[in-house]
From TrEMBL:
Transmembrane segments: none annotated. One of its GO terms (molecular function) is DNA binding. This is TetR family transcriptional regulator. The lineage of its organism: Bacteria, Bacillati, Chloroflexota, Ktedonobacteria, Ktedonobacterales. PROSITE patterns: HTH_TETR_2. Keywords: DNA-binding. Pfam families: TetR_HI_0893_C, TetR_N. Residues 33-52 bind DNA. Residues 10-70 form the HTH tetR-type domain. InterPro entries: Homeodomain-like_sf, HTH-type_Tx_Regulator, HTH_TetR, TetR-like_HI_0893_C.
């Protein structure tokens, strides 16, 4: 296949994914049929099914693309040599800034991850459980697992130094990344204005909520 043909195929596939992202953000997963994606992307149903086996396959591909991009953004500013509190703040701030800059992606992630079976941790109740679960499944190495690698390293070091409060995973998630994502949504909507100093203070407060 010639280079220009490969580029055209890549661009068409990307156009389909982008159309799906925009439509899900506008209408929700349940109200985004393939016919709408076809119209928005200007690709016939036959073309779409050439790239994706089904709507589920298309959505899964979009999910993987977003997670990969988010992982890159998080890993880019993360320095594992920094003290733990600085590493946590860097992770928190990266998540906030990514969510603020990518509202459509965050809407898609929230809706897609609410589908039963898409994102679940059987028997996982604490961050230590999650770290052990990651180690057992050994998912690292793939480009879109950078986020998991960063989180695993942070959890591992927090646990090793006994700095993590004994709280359920869901609670820690709400105290940390949950706060970052909600503040990003409120900032995007103009409901709250936070400068970098305020964001650093919030990140530190989230750290204080989960660290001994």
């Amino acid at each position: 296949m010639r280079a220009e043909e490969q580029v055209q195929k890549s661009e068409k596939r990307e156009a389909i994914l982008q159309a799906a992202l925009e439509l899900v953000a506008e209408n929700g997963l349940q109200h985004t049929p393939m016919s709408m994606i076809s119209k928005r992307s200007r690709a016939s149903a036959g073309i779409i099914y050439h790239y994706f086996e089904s709507k589920d396959d298309l959505l899964a591909s979009l999910y993987q693309r977003i997670k990969r991009e988010m992982s890159r953004a998080i890993a880019a500013r993360y320095d594992p040599q920094q003290p733990l509190v600085k590493r946590f703040q860097s992770l928190w701030l990266s998540m906030f800034h990514y969510a603020l800059a990518h509202p459509k992606e965050m809407v898609f992630l929230e809706q897609y991850e609410s589908i039963p079976g898409v994102k679940q941790h059987e028997g996982v109740k604490t961050l230590q459980d999650m770290a052990e679960d990651w180690q057992r499944k050994n998912p690292f190495g793939a480009e879109n697992d950078l986020e998991a690698q960063v989180l695993h390293g942070l959890v591992r070091d927090l646990s090793a130094q006994d700095l993590l409060k004994d709280l359920p995973l869901e609670v820690i998630g709400e105290f940390t990344m949950g706060v970052a994502l909600r503040l990003a949504r409120q900032s995007a909507a103009g409901l709250v204005k936070l400068d970098e100093a305020a964001l650093n203070n919030v990140a530190r407060a989230c750290w204080d909520a989960i660290a001994r």
